Amino acid sequence: MSSILLAVADALAADLTQHSFSVPFSATRTYADAEYQLDAAAGTLQCDVVPASELKTELDDRGTVRYLASAFVVFRRKFAGDDIEQVGSTEQTRVKAASVDPLVGLVEEANEWLTAQERLTNRPDAVWNSTNIEAAVVHKHLREWSQFTGIIKTTYEVPKPL
Prior knowledge:
- The chain has helices spanning 4-18, 97-116, 139-145; strands at residues 27-29, 46-61, 64-78, 84-86, 93-95, 119-120, 123-135, 147-161.
- The protein has a 6-stranded mixed beta sheet, with helices on both faces. Strands 4-5 form a two-stranded antiparallel sheet.
- It has a single domain, classed as 2-Layer Sandwich (STM4215-like), CATH 3.30.2000.
- The protein is an alpha+beta fold.
- The longest helix is centred in the middle third of the chain and has 20 residues, at 97-116.
């Protein structure tokens, strides 16, 4: 028997990968921690679908439990080279706004797309419940690591017979 939480995250990653977004990426279900720095500046956008640690349940009727399965969609990209600019006459640098703007837009685009999807293709019993942008951009990561991080949390209701 498969975990509801993992099945929802796998189906979500598959649906995200199949859709054509303004910034291309492939989503992968992982246990990545969005609070950690990416290792290298590959310049590619990484999308992790991370099952939430909490799995809420409600009794639907005498023979069915309803799970509220959530997953985080985490977009990350490490910047270097032409994406970095010097700030004034100081030694301080920052990521160029023109490099970050499309990724902030992608977070909003993905949020709207997830909200409009009533069901997951590979898990049609999973019905959309809610979607929230947890962070359109994590400014600390951008400032300290030259790394974009954007986080969306989405939740699906999944019935399961007892």
